[in-house]
Amino acid sequence: MNIQSLLSDKIMQALIAAGAPSDCDALVKQSAKAQFGDYQANGIMAAAKKMGMQPRQLAEQVISHLDLTHIADKVEIAGPGFINIYLNKHWVAKQADLALTTDKLNITTTSKPQTVLVDYSAPNVAKEMHVGHLRSTIIGDATVRTLEFLGHNVIRANHVGDWGTQFGMLIAYLEKVQNENANELALSDLESFYRAAKKHYDEDEVFAEKARNYVVKLQGGDAYCLDMWRKLVDITMSQNVATYKRLNVTLSLEDTMGESLYNDMLAGVVKDLREKGLAVESDGATVVYLDEYKNKDGEPMGVIIQKRDGGYLYATTDIAAIIYRYTKLHCDRILYYTDSRQHQHLEQVWLIAHKAGYIPESLQLEHHMFGMMLGKDGKPFKTRSGETIKLNDLLDEALERALVLIRGKNPDLPETELHEIAEAVSIGAVKYADLSKNRTTDYVFDWDNMLAFEGNTAPYLQYAYTRVLSLFRKAELDIDKLSGEISLEHEKEYALAARLMQFEEAIQSVAKEGLPHILCAYLYDIATLFSSFYENCPVLAANTETQKLSRLRLSALTAKTLAVGFQMLGIKAVEKM
Ligand code: ARG
What pLDDT score was predicted for residue 449? Predict the structure, then answer.
C-alpha cells in the first residue's frame, strides 16, 4: 500500500475536476509534523497560479471534489493554500492488517517491470578491494535488492577493471614468480604482487621490455598471454567473491562484465565515430570534441577515444558498454554507482552515445554518485602510515569490535552463537554506517558511532528486532499465526501503525533514486516508535484478549517490516543478542 500515491491520485482527480490543467502536480508529501495531519498536498498554490486563481479558493474547490470517504477523517486548508489530510484510524488499522496477512507486506510490485542494469562494485584486477570500493558495492547492492523485490528484471554488472596496459607487467611478473617458485603463486596478497610487479617494471629494463611485448601479444590474442591473464583475473575474482559473500552482497562470479568484454567492439566504435564525423584526428590521437564542455581556454573539450599508440581509453570502453547494454541486453534503465569524480566522464560518454545515435532518449541513464569515506581527521580514510585500507582488514577489525560489544551486552552467550551474532552485527554496522548517510556527500568513518546500541545504528535496529521476537517467545506464540485484528486506540499505537504504512514510500526512494539512507531513517523511526509503543502499551499484560491480539499483531508487523528492510539493505537479522 502506497498511501502517498493513493492520495496523489485522489487530489489530482479533484484538481482536474476543479478545472486545473492536467500537467499540474498535487505534490503530496508526508507531513513533517503531526499537527499538519498525516499528509499534505503542497501543489495547490502552483496550480492556482497557472489558472489565475486565488490558492485558497482553489483549495476549497479541490476539497469539494475530493472523495476520501473511509480514508481520511479530516481535510483542512492551511496557510496560503496547503491541504492537510488526517487519516482515519480504522482505515489505517485495516491497511496494517492487510500488510500483515498479504504476501510481501502488501507492497505493490511494479506493473511495468523494467530491465535495469546496475553497474556497481567494479574493483580492479590484481588489486585487493579497498574501502574505496565499499560504497559502490553496498549502495549498489541495496538498490539491486530493492528493484528485484519490486519485480524488476535486474542485471548486476560488475564492470571490473580487467584490461589495460598494466597487464603486460603483471603477466611478466607472474611468469617470473611461477618460474622461481613453481608451487606458490604469491598472488594471495594481491597488493604486494602488484607493487612488486611495478617495482620490477620501473627498475629492470629487460623486464620492462618483456612487459611491453606482452601487452602487444595479449592484445593480439596470443594464447599464452591470454592464459596468464585469465589466471590473474580468476584469482582476483575468487578473492572478491569471497569478500562479497562475507559482506552479504549478492554479486557472484557470473555477474562479472569486465572491461575486457567490450574489447572486440572498440575498433568498430572508433571507426564509426570517425565516419559519423564525431571523432577527428588530433596529434595522431582520435578525439571527440564536445561543444557542451569547454576547456579552460573556452574551447570545446576533447574526449580522447584512441591514443596515438593505438591504445583505447576508459571512455571508449564505456561507450562500447552502453551500446552492448542497450542492443544486447535490452536495458530500459542503467544505474552507475561510482564516486562523484567520475560524473563528467559518464556524462560525456552518454552525450557521445546519444550524438552517435547508439541509444535512444528513452533509455534512462543515471549516475548514482557518492562522496568519499573520510577518517575522523576529515581526510581520506587511510591507515596510519597513509596506505589505503583493505576491505578485509576493515571487516576483521569490525568483527573484533563487535565481539567486545556483544560480549558486554550478553556475557552468557555460548561462544559459537556469540560469533555468529558478532559476524552479523559487524557487517551490519559497517554497511549501515554507510547506507544511512546521504550518499551524495562525504562521510566520516567512526567505529564508535557505528558499533553502538544507541542512535541510528545497525546494532540498535538489530536489537529492536530481537526484542519483538522475544515477546513472541515469551508468549509462546507463532508470529505467523496470529488471530484477531488491529485496532488503534492509543496514540502510540496509531503513530507506529501510520508509520508502518509508509514502508512502500521508503522503498520507492531506494528504487527511484538509489537513496538507501531514506529507508534507513525510516527503519530507525519504526524501531523508536515501537519502543515508545512498547513502553506505553502493555502487550502481554493488555486489558483484554482483543487488545492483546491487536498489539501482538502490530508487533508482528513491526518485526516483519524490519526484516524486509534489513533484507533490502543486505543486513542480517539475528534472533537473539
Ligand atoms: N573500475 C572503476 C574504478 O575502480 C569503476 C568502474 C565503474 N563503471 C563504469 N562503467 N565506468 O574506478
Answer: 86
Give the Cα separation of 279 and 270 in Å (integer): 8
The per-residue pLDDT for range 552-570, each reduced to its tens digit, is 999 999 999 999 999 999 9
Looking at 66-161, list the stretches that DSSP marks H as alpha helix, in order from N- to C-terminal side.
89-101, 131-149
Residue 137, strand partner residues? none
- Ligand 1 mean position, distance from CA 338 (Å): 6
What ipTM score was computed for the predicted complex, to two decimals?
0.98
List all residues whose CB is within 6 A of at least one atom of ligand 1. Answer: 119, 122, 124, 159, 161, 318, 321, 336, 338
Hey, whose CA ends up nearest to atom 6 of ligand 1?
122
* Superfamily (CATH) of domain 3-87: Arginyl tRNA synthetase N-terminal domain (3.30.1360.70)
CA of 392 to the centre of ligand 1 (A): 20
Please count the other Cβ atoms lying within 10 Å of the Cβ belonging to residue 196. Answer: 15
pTM given for the model: 0.93
Q: Domain ranges in the chain?
A: 3-87, 165-251, 416-439+447-569
Choose which residue among 131, 329, 338, 370 to substitute to test ligand 1 binding: the one with the highest number of ligand atoms within 8 A of its C-beta: 338
**Cell numbers that stand for 444 in this block:** 566520516
Confidence of residue 184 (pLDDT cuts 50, 70, 90): low
| Domain covering 416-439+447-569: architecture | Orthogonal Bundle (1.10)
Nearest to 574 by CA among 503, 469, 476: 469
Residue nearest to atom 11 of ligand 1 (CA): 318
The reported pLDDT for the residue numbered 183 is 53
Smallest CA-to-CA distance from 234 within 269, 262, 258 is with 258
Altogether, the residues listed in the chain come to a count of 577
Compute the distance from residue 370 Cα to the ligand 1 centre, in Å.
13
Closest C-alpha to 144, from 244, 233, 69: 244
User: Residue 267: CA atoms inside 13 Å, Cβ hemisphere, count?
Assistant: 4
Question: From atom 8 of ligand 1, which residue's Cα is the shortest distance away?
Answer: 159
Using the predicted structure, report yes or no on whether residue 154 has a pLDDT greater than 80: yes
